[in-house]
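Batch 3, record 17
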Amino acid sequence: MWSILANPHRFMAFSRYAVPVCYAIGTALFGWAMYQALWVVPSDAYQGGDIIRAMFIHVPSAWLCMGLYLGLAGSSFVWFIWRHELADIAARAIAPIGAGYTALCLATGSIWGKPTWGTWWLWDDARMMSVLVLFFLFLGYMALRAAMETRQKAARAGAILAMVGAVNVPLIKFSVDIWSSLHQGPSVIRAEGPAMAAVYLNPLLISFLGQGLIVAAMVFTLMRAEVFGQQADALMARRLSEG
Amino acid sequence: MLPEFDKNAAFIWAIIALGIGLPILLAIYAGLRARLARRRLERLREE
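Prediction for the assembled complex:
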């Protein structure tokens, strides 16, 4: 499937229909998860009462920002090895969405932390700091590309930064195991299976799936914008060379 | 018909507002960029 979509023309034909479908299904799933989170899911006395409802926004945004960075690093790797133009377009499209979702993760985590732990932020918490580094990696990727003179130089410098920065993703995941943190240990993605009751786990996974589809639609939309932009640039260059 | 929370309602609603508002802003940003890029290409093709 990936080799078929690697052709820009096929990608444009596919994404034309994939974008509205992803938006529609993603919004429906996310809407259902929010209904469950606000009206159905019971409050949890052990986890601070009703504030547990923040989990259905915060946790999927944390998973998504790590997934988006892996997507950025993976696309950069594909461009770096095979020089595939669509991979570079994907990397460029992922960066602003990744930065947005990392900001969402940081902001919602900070708001959740105040009533739960009594603080908005802790500078020596490994999980918080590694996610902040992820945010700066997304911003740094965009700034580095914007500072380069040519598209090739921007792609190369951005790809190297994205691949090197990928080491931060496992650090985020295992930060609560390696260092002391206010965050609890893993309760969903762990070897023994999820340690969460189904009444919380199912809406959480549906929220993640819904938000994931919405993110996919946004990335496809930005990729379409990049392809349109490149086609326009190529047209301009051809006209200028013809005089 | 909004749900009522025992405590921390302001924190919960702030997180919900961010969780719904920020993706909407990102979707608008992505849509506008695609629309502007397509219009530029169409204009160049027409000239």
